[in-house]
Design a protein that fits this description.
The complex is a heterodimer of chains A (103) and B (212). With 103 residues, chain A is α+β, with helices and mostly antiparallel strands. Chain A has one domain: Arc Repressor Mutant, subunit A, CATH 1.10.10. Helices cover 55% and strands 17% of the residues of chain A. In chain A, strand 2 and strand 3 form a beta hairpin. By secondary structure, chain B is an all-alpha fold. In chain B, helix 1 crosses helix 4, helix 2 packs across helix 3 and helix 8 runs antiparallel to helix 9. Chain B starts with a helix and ends in a 12-residue tail after the last helix. The chains are: A alpha+beta (103), B mainly alpha (212). Chains A and B meet through helix 2, helix 3 and strand 3 of A and helix 2 and helix 4 of B.
Chain lengths: 103, 212
């Protein structure tokens, strides 16, 4: 399913649970959407870098299975943006449901 | 590393700076290893796991376009490395610094003197030449350390430059527009590259040239 534009919000949502590396973020989004939101994983990292540039996430070195990995965690501003995006999404979803009707 | 992954990485890191390309390589290789291990623990053969891990990455050209929007390209990295040469040259020679600071003041005073003496044409030439050059030369010494001050300076810089060109060409500005465009496209290109770098670098890492 095409979910262009919502990937940054989904990444922030995934990171709100716990700090994570890119692969786990991708898996979490796919699992939580029951495989509906299936995206190309090569596009995840540019989105993560953009969030990093904007100060919404920060990266740090971590270790997994004895190997160094780049982990990301959500920042204070990231929490704020996520709350705003969530409220906007609920409003949009309610409005579209009013027009299209309940499934 | 498999040939498929190497090909993917080559395409995805095209035109990126050396540091950006190294960063992309590391993160994609880590991702690839995790995807490969997950596929193999799910019962895939090594070949199947390799293929599915690369396929899951998607189109390398699309990734490259997105990477170039958020990471420094080789052109931008070169501009950051070499773009500060004037400031370095000036700061290493104190006499040059004072000479450059005195130039716009001298040009302004000379222009006023010419104007009072009735040499309007000469006064105009001095203003047109002296003020924009003075503004650009003194920029490295101005206290521009915050993005908002940088924005104000850039607005002033463009107003002065356009004003000087307007003063120089007067009503003939349209007639000479081909010359203006061919001279200014390089300046516009440098400005555009700086805008792109400002979007990609956190403010804490901005060198002085990005404020100008």
């Amino acid at each position: 399913m095409n979910f262009k534009g919502t990937l940054p919000t989904l990444i922030l949502e995934a990171l709100e649970q716990e700090p994570s590396h890119g692969y786990r973020i991708a898996q979490r989004i796919k699992e939580r959407s029951h495989g509906v939101l299936d995206f190309k994983e090569g596009t995840l990292y540019p989105a993560l870098h953009k969030l990093d540039n904007e100060g919404l996430v920060e990266s740090f070195e971590g270790i997994e299975k004895g190997r160094p990995r780049r982990y990301y965690r959500i920042t204070e501003s990231g929490h704020g943006i996520l709350a705003k995006d969530r409220a906007e999404w609920r409003e949009l979803s309610r409005a579209v449901t009013l027009i299209l009707g309940e499934a | 590393m498999t040939t498929e992954l190497e090909t993917w990485l080559k395409q995805a890191t095209r035109q990126l700076s050396r540091d950006s390309a190294a960063q992309v390589r590391t993160e994609i290789q880590e991702h690839y290893e995790s995807a490969r291990e997950a596929a193999m623990s799910g019962g895939s053969t090594t070949a199947q796991a390799d293929r599915s891990a690369v396929t899951a990455l998607g189109n390398a050209k699309t990734a490259n376009c997105q990477y170039r929007r958020v990471l420094l390209t080789s052109v931008e990295a070169r501009m950051l490395r070499e773009g500060n040469w004037e400031a370095r040259a000036v700061c290493s020679r104190p006499w040059l610094k004072w000479m450059l600071l005195a130039m716009p003041v001298a040009a302004l005073m000379a222009a006023i003197a010419c104007f009072l003496a009735g040499a309007i044409g000469m006064a105009r030439v001095l203003l047109v030449g002296g003020i924009p050059i003075g503004l650009l030369l003194t920029a490295p010494f101005l206290p521009l350390y915050t993005p908002s001050r940088g924005r104000v300076f850039r607005v002033v810089k463009w107003v002065v430059l356009i004003g000087a060109l307007g003063l120089a060409f007067g009503p003939d500005a349209l007639k000479w527009s081909w010359l203006l465009i061919s001279c200014l496209w390089l300046v516009a290109r440098i400005e555009w590259t700086r805008v792109s770098i400002r979007r990609k670098l956190p403010v804490a890492e901005w060198p002085k040239q990005l404020y100008l």
